[in-house]
Write a structure and sequence with these properties.
PKD domain-containing protein; four-stranded mixed β-sheet; Immunoglobulin-like; transmembrane helix; five-stranded mixed β-sheet; 3 domains; Nuclear Transport Factor 2, Chain: A; Ig-like_fold; PKD_dom; 6 helices; alpha+beta
Amino acid sequence: MDNKKTITIIILGLVAIAGILLFLFLPSKSHLANIDFYVYDTNDNFHYEVNERLELLVNDTAAIKGKRLIWEMGNGDTLMRNTDVSYTYRKAGKYLITLKIDGKHSVNKYIKVISGLEHEAIDSIPRINGVSEGYQGEELVFSAEGYGMDTWLWEFGESGTVDAYEQQVVYSYDIPGEYTISLQTNTTKYPVKHRIIILPRFEKAEELVTVDSLVLVQNDIKKHLQAIADAKVSQRSVYYEHTNYIRNKYFCIDADQVVVVINDEKYNDFNGYCQGLHFLESNRKKRVSIDDVKIDDLNCVKSIHVTQSYIEK
């Protein structure tokens, strides 16, 4: 009887030890499920370009330690590296990058690689910065944004002719109503349009409400962008929660058509900008601080001006 008990205890002990060893040394599916990667453009202009060296960075280097990584670049090329992974595309196009880990888990990501001409064309599209609502007799400021412009023809829809010739102009409407502002530049074949509503000057009480609402919306967007910047790359649910909140609450057009202007010098669409924010916090030794946010239209956001800075961790 004692021998049977001894044998039983030994068997149970061996099973327990085997279970512990399996737990320690077998790959953790939960860890692999959280693995993601980011494609970083080395010239830091938020575009993936032909002949630009792109860096591929995994969000959790500890989870892939000792594992076999294969990168499929979507054009037939394959890389087998765990660290210092970089690649240069020679042709423009859309590519599906696949990261395979030990042949058991894979992560996919589409990227669009553009030519230098496409990049120039994207940044050369003029945009009108200005309010979408004003008051009779109020001095309103409008400016044109874009590269390559050296002539500007502004028509504010009231006089029936060209009203100004500078990149930034000030205009006041004499009569309330709805107007279409037209801007023709040397880089456009057809004028760029911007609609504005001019209210009678006695509606001052509503003006205060509009201004207060604008500040509230801008601060709300700022708060959610900061949350995206603070989230770790592995916290994808947090990332999607805040990007979807901004998109669903404030946009009237597709998110990839909403222009984000960073520090008045760099441009990106909303989706690309948020992906960059989400990546920077977890892969650099700096923290992104969203200092200020301005929007073009309270009721239909089409462009967001973000002032941001980096703070050492």
